[in-house]
Write a structure and sequence with these properties.
Layout (H helix, E strand, L loop, with lengths): L1 H6 L3 E8 L2 H8 L1 H16 L7 E4 L4 E7 L4 H9 L6 E5 L9 E5 L3 E8 L6 H16 L6 E3 L2 H23 L2 E10 L5 E11 L5 E2 L1 H10 L2 H23 L5 E5 L2 H4 L4 H12 L6 E6 L2 H4 L1 H13 L3 E7 L6 H5 L5 E4 L1 H5 L5 H16 L3 E5 L4 H9 L4 E3 L9 H12 L1
Parallel strand pairs: 6-7, 9-11, 11-12, 12-13, 13-14, 14-15, 15-16
Antiparallel strand pairs: 1-3, 1-6, 2-3, 4-5, 8-9, 8-16, 9-10
Helix pairs in contact: 2-3, 6-7, 6-8, 7-8, 8-10, 8-17, 10-12
The chain binds ligand C2E and magnesium ion (2 copies).
Amino acid sequence: MEDKFLIGKPFTLACIEIMNFKNINGMVGIQAGDLILKKASGFFKGCITDEDRLYRMTGVTFMIVFDENSDVETSLKKIMELEKKQVDFVYSKDPENSVQEEQTVCYKLAIGISKFPDDAKDFTTIIRHVDIALAHAQNQTENKVITYNEELEKEQQKQAEADRLITESLEKDWFYLMYQPQFTLEEKKLRGFETLIRCKKPDGSIVSPAFFIPAAEKSNLILKIDDYVLKRAINESKKMLEKTQELCTISVNISAKNISSEGFAEKVIDLIEKANFQPECLEIEITEYSFVESLEVTVENINKLRAHGVQIALDDFGTGYTSIAQVMNLPVNLLKIDKSLIDEIESSQKKRNLVNSIISMGHIMNCEVISEGVENEQQLDILRTYDCDFIQGYVWSKPIEYNAALELSHDKAK
Ligand code: C2E
Ligand code: MG
Ligand code: MG
């Protein structure tokens, strides 16, 4: 490979990874796994020209050095076709035993690309760039052939920075919760609080979740954050609930990854029971896009939590693609209308109609409805005419510190 650098001829480097090879190996065993790799390698070879070079790098990654005159796009398109094929092969699981078995395998591929000399002028840099492009390709669900560009590198650095911050914050206890009150619209009575995570660094600066939550959702760190928030919210709010006679709802944001993962409901129920917490006082906020990940597991988790008394709110409602039929089949008890719809409620008749319809639809489904991000009296007046049940927003309160929330909840008890 390095010869080409010495000659200095332009070329394109592509790195292909068989992403599901671990699963395949588990299914057929290591010996047969080698056969499967050979089949893939043979297929890749058939997609390139004699001028191009194919190398097997680590266990499941291959590199192709494309000649400057090769049609890279067409070759890679052909290579990706392997994903659509079901490859049958015959193997014996036990090398000592000649019993042959048949298996059908589907491959899942990701490809990163970098160009010499356009993207990099030396060997180390081009390998680093191809790695960055491959890492992005692995995170895609659709287009999994990604060419390196500077933006990808910046994004990767931002992700690494956020990951470091999250890990350090968990270790050193830099995270804390703010509590944003929710009120009944008619009487301005406290319904409860939404917990909102913040990070306070030792220099006193506060980092918003808008920086680290999207990054945490890409890495699996969101699972740790959600666990942390749930535990802390339950422990802190126990003190609030001790003195309140009426039920006060503590609403916790949970990521799509968590709500659609097996065992989530059991984990929450276990936490509630260990803390001796009243399940009716806990509300789990899920976003509409939670349904895209794994609808079946999501619904199962929601049903188990509801059966246990935990409440479920659908956050950011009106921004995603959840169908009415999907919502109808879910035991959700609260719809949260997204701030983006409330923002233009005074100026846009369309938005007004939409909000009005969502509130009516919610009520037909036996759900209560809360509007979030309400900032002024005019918006309150409009929402009153539509019979919205609750509101949350700067007009009545910004998110407040734990001690202030404790006081507010105790005032409610008086
Ligand atoms: P979200 O769950 O939709 O939370 C509402 C966001 O709108 C909060 O921002 C809140 O402070 C802000 N907000 C509320 N009322 C108003 C208003 O009247 N005007 C304006 N301009 N903003 C208002 P925040 O705290 O920055 O949270 C942003 C997002 O980060 C949340 O959106 C949620 O998706 C995520 N998030 C926050 N805390 C957590 C958490 O503990 N776990 C998870 N998984 N996600 C969280
Ligand atoms: Mg929320
Ligand atoms: Mg929201």
